[in-house]
Design brief:
Blueprint (H helix, E strand, L loop, with lengths): L1 E7 L8 E6 L2 E8 L2 E6 L13 E3 L2 E3 L6 E3 L5 E3 L1 E3 L2 E3 L6 E2 L1 E4 L2 E6 L2
Antiparallel strand pairs: 1-13, 2-3, 3-4, 4-11, 5-6, 6-7, 7-8, 9-10, 12-13
Length: 110
Amino acid sequence: MEYIKVLEVSQLPAGEMTMVKVRGKEILLANLDGSYHAVANKCSHLGGSLAKGSLDGKVVTCPRHGAQFDLTNGGAVGDAQIMILKMGVKDLESYPVKVEGAEILVGDSE
């Protein structure tokens, strides 16, 4: 597995998230109280950008239809909802993250 530098630690404060690209893949990177986690940025429901969603603790909510995902493992924890219709969503792909000095690196097995 190769790790690719995506940001400096100073660029992502605790409780924040951002979209980064690793070899053309859009990845959501979050700082959960000093612990960094990375998952696919696209919602598994209809592909909404999770970086535009809201973060509450370790859960990101998709801005399109409210699907929710646990950023520590990519697991789906809340269904998408359109009006009164709820739709199940699949887990997101997650990526390993490590910090070396002041650099945040995301693993990619491509």
